[in-house]
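>> received
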Amino acid sequence: MVGYRVLITDAILEFSRIRKRDRDEIRMFLRSLRSNPYQEGDHVELDEVDRILHVNIVGKIALAYWADHAAKEVKVTNVRSADF
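>> returned
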């Protein structure tokens, strides 16, 4: 399968405030989305247009994403602190 591109919201700029270990785990997860865009998240939520977003918890960070299969892109639309 041809890899997908991963597009990330500018909220990712908060990476500078994230522990190195969490940053490394996030990078690994984002790379895994390129080769397997069908991954399901730890849970799902709806965005403002009622699109299903998969939410994956990586360390202390929650990443919300959806796969645009027509464009062969995975869009990470929200990066935030995970609520425990």
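>> The chain has a mean pLDDT of 89.
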